[in-house]
Amino acid sequence: MDKFRMMFQFLQSNQESFMNGICGIMALASAQLYSAFEFSCPCIPEYNYSYGIGLLVVPPIWFFLLGFVLNNNVSMLAEEWKRPTGKRVKDPTVLRYMFVSITQRSLIAPMVWISVTLMDGKSFLCAFSVDLDIHQFGNSTLIEGMSEVEIITLLAKIPCKNIFDQPNVISREAASRYIKCISQAFGWFFLLLMTSAAFMIRAIRPCFTQAAFLKTKYWSHYIDIERKLFDETCKEHAKTFAKVCIQQYFESVSGEMRSLHKNRSSEDDSDNDDDDKKKGDKDKLLGIHAQDDMNKVLWNWHTCKPPLALRKEQPEGESREGLGPTGADSGPNGLANGHAHNDPKREWAVYYSKV
């Protein structure tokens, strides 16, 4: 149990490895699900195509949406896209990078399903058996005496071995192998196409826009880490707030008993320790001691996040440098009362050209 807990903590700390692991599990699940799936073609001309193409398209769409649901960055992307601008401008390139990253991971399981389905060929055979040229695999003398409806009905029964009742008219085995070979050819072509597209995205794009790629990758990581730290800070504040509220409740209820215990000298040290713990807990509250204040903080965080420009903190010995004789505080530009520092001025020579 400890090993699984350590593995989960490692994956949780490393978001990229965690999401890659989920994508791998989904890919294996899609292949295992197809192998356990019992394929049953209806063998009816009106439903063969819909069933075969639906089996090829609908499960990949479900896996694609499931990949978005299991990705934790989807809510972060939606929150960053819908939040008000406030004091921090939204960068469309970062949002685009995050969306492309989520989409790439979500496409792995659908690609595996489509590849396995095309390699197996059952759905392709069910969908396109009606379009087969019966003259290439059938007995021409028997086919000429059949109507168009009978031919289509016969072709629709090719995927169903149990109900195929006219082996003398058409060779079912040959027709099935022919369609499955075409399906496997499409499967290999699909794998080659997807692999080439992945190579183009992963390898060639950073070569042309390396600076922009690094910038968008950095700020996408920053948004993810900032959200995690904010959640951890809120969790720690809520825990401390609940602890202080419970302590104050019990102190108000047991006030008389506590006043009696304070007269004993043996418990003075414990009281001092309790006071130190209370001060430490109050420091963790960061000056927020009311529900309305916390709601205001959370609302301000959503509407106008702080700008991404850190303030420089001056040392105490340098905070008074450059001030006047009165020792007034610096102005908005870092100058005393709007006046410049007494630094030696430099002479500059400027030349102008009429060209």
From TrEMBL:
InterPro entries documented for this protein: CALHM
Domain of life: Eukaryota
Pfam families in the record: Ca_hom_mod (PF14798)
Subcellular localization: Membrane
GO cellular component, one term: plasma membrane
Membrane-related topology note: Multi-pass membrane protein
GO terms (BP aspect): ATP export
Keyword Nucleotide-binding (UniProt): no
Compositionally biased tracts (Basic and acidic residues): 275-286, 310-321
Molecular-function GO term, any one: monoatomic cation channel activity
Keyword Ion transport: yes
Membrane-crossing segments per the record: 21-37, 49-74, 185-204
Record's keyword terms, sorted: Ion channel, Ion transport, Membrane, Transmembrane, Transmembrane helix, Transport
Chain residue ranges for the region called Disordered: 257-286, 309-355
Similarity comment text for this entry: Belongs to the CALHM family.
Protein name as annotated: Calcium homeostasis modulator 1
Native source species: Esox lucius
Name of the coding gene: CALHM1
